[in-house]
Amino acid sequence: MSQNNVVVVGAGVIGLTTALVLSKHKNLNITLVSKHMPGDYDIEYASPWAGANFMPVGKEGSKLRAFERATWPEIDRICRDIPEAGIHYQECKVYGRKKDEGTAVGIWFQELIKEDPWFKDLMPEFKILDKSELPPSCNTGTSFKSVCINTAIYLPWLLGQCLKNNVAIKRGIINHISEAPSHHTTGTASVVINCTGLMASKLGGVMDTTVYPGRGQIAIVRNEPGAMHTTSGTDDGPEEAMYIMQRAAGGGTIIGGCLQHGNWDSQVDPSLANRILQRAVDICPSLAPKTGKVTELSIIRHGVGLRPMREDGIRVEKELIGTRDQDLWVVHGYGHAGYGYQSSFGSAFAMEELVLGIVNKNAPKAKL
């Protein structure tokens, strides 16, 4: 019977995490299909480019806040108990500037930079920084214990856990959501999980016009900052950001960046790259302790990633789509912007609930 056959479309952090969570239900027969897989670096595939860390930004009443709250215990557990997943703890220092209110980056960080944030009881070792600990340009600051993830290790680890739990993994290009069931190993499925990220804007049967790119640009260096640092904005422009985070297990230090709404450009902007590096050295002198200059940075590479933004935020809901052959249940899970890793398990748990509701409702009743 196809009623327990599930196809997950997309192998970013949301698709892989959702497949892993669903794979713990032995009655589900899961195939994950994706154009891109861990190990690939493509402008359509956002997850490898991410920092990636855990800095809560969800607003009150939002799905994002609920998903972040549900995700932290899982990420914390993996970091503590599973070193091969490529996650490590790192102090996170957040600096706020009043003049950034209303800018693209200021809005992005507005929950994060509060001195009395909702997550103060969620994130360990939360404290307000003394004024003497702030950079000269900043008015407020906090710190807490967080994590930074080596995406080059973590994404393959998620994939490996899926394989361990008998999820079939296939490469494939899907032009219309109705094509997904044919990619299942049995050739049919009754439930499709749409974790296509930015490509939800171009996928037939979905074509979500409210999805758009939030361009980010990064540099990866060998220098060690000693802690994660981020500010609510920069003097270089309202769409430019400053964040520094050291990936686990030799993954290098990520320096960024920007949040350029609607920009699809995949090429590195050399001028922006120089500004990114200069801001990092200015805010974190330990990156260049000898000279205090950008030339002291040992650059591994520059990169560009497109965050899968959505005007109304994350979409997690089910939809019944009529196809030529059958009615197909689609569970959507996309629009995670720059928060995929820190909302991954919460999103997956929400999609799990929807899938089980569909499968259990469609299950044949026992004849008495």
UniProtKB/TrEMBL annotation:
Its cofactor is FAD. GO terms for cellular component: cytoplasm. FAD binds at T196. Keywords: FAD, Flavoprotein, Oxidoreductase. One of its GO terms (biological process) is D-amino acid catabolic process. The keyword Transferase does not apply. Residues 6-351 form the FAD dependent oxidoreductase domain. Pfam families: DAO (PF01266). It comes from the Eukaryota. D-dopa binds at Y243, R307, G338. InterPro entries: DAO, FAD-dep_OxRdtase. One of its GO terms (molecular function) is FAD binding. The keyword Membrane does not apply. Belongs to the DAMOX/DASOX family. This is FAD dependent oxidoreductase domain-containing protein.
